[in-house]
Amino acid sequence: MAKNTICLWYDKDAEAAARFYCDLFPDSRLDAVRRAPSDFPGGNRGDVLTVEFTVAGIPCLGLNGGPVFTHNEAFSFQIATDDQEETDRYWNAIVGNGGQESACGWCKDRWGISWQITPRALTDAMAAGGGEAKRAFEAMMTMKKIDVAEIEAARRG
């Protein structure tokens, strides 16, 4: 296990979530599934307790801790995409698999984890500053999934 790992709390679906992420994102892998050695609050001996995995290069630990805590937008994964095809693929996989759309490139997966699917065209426009950034930002504010062509058009004015 890595020295610093993100721990994600799930009710009971840490393994399913990890497998979904590993199938979707490159540089992802399932490293270990650990079962509870005895009964615990919300689970029984032999149930999956933790799942060690890497998602898009980030080491994570999924903990099946029960329904006590839920996720919110204070934590999100931000995935930089190279084009509209990649943006669409990730967005559609997350939203289309029981997730939900939000605003400005944000969505949630079916487990409540927030994702920012962010085309590099948007971050490049914001980094340019000035009028380009303002126009791109204003265009983004009207979107759910980011439309790369609209961002590029807004950037050009």
How would you classify the helix and strand content by structural class? alpha/beta
User: Per DSSP, what share of the residues sits in E-state strands of 2 or more residues?
Assistant: 25-35%
Shape call: elongated
Order of helices and strands: EHEEEEHEEEHHH
| Strand arrangement across the biggest beta sheet | 1-4-3-2
Distance between the termini: 48 Å
**How many helical stretches?**
5
The main sheet comes to: 4 strands, mixed
Which bin fits the share of residues in helices?
A: 25-40%
Number of strands: 8
Which CATH architecture of the largest domain would you pick?
A: Roll
**The CATH homology group name of the largest domain:** 2,3-Dihydroxybiphenyl 1,2-Dioxygenase, domain 1
**Radius of gyration computed on alpha carbons:** 18 Å
Give the domain tally.
2
Mean pLDDT: 96
CATH topology name of the largest domain, in short, is 2,3-Dihydroxybiphenyl 1,2-Dioxygenase, domain 1
The low-confidence runs, each spanning 5 or more residues with pLDDT under 50, are none
Regarding CATH, which class of the largest domain? Alpha Beta
What would you say this structure looks like, in words?
This protein is of the alpha/beta class and 157 residues long. The chain has two domains: 68 residues, 2,3-Dihydroxybiphenyl 1,2-Dioxygenase, domain 1 (Roll); 87 residues, 2,3-Dihydroxybiphenyl 1,2-Dioxygenase, domain 1 (Roll), CATH 3.10.180. It has five helices and eight strands. The strands form two sheets. The protein has a four-stranded mixed beta sheet with strand order 1-4-3-2, covered by helices on one side. Strand 6 and strand 7 form a beta hairpin. Helix 4 packs antiparallel against helix 5. The protein is elongated and about 60 Å long.
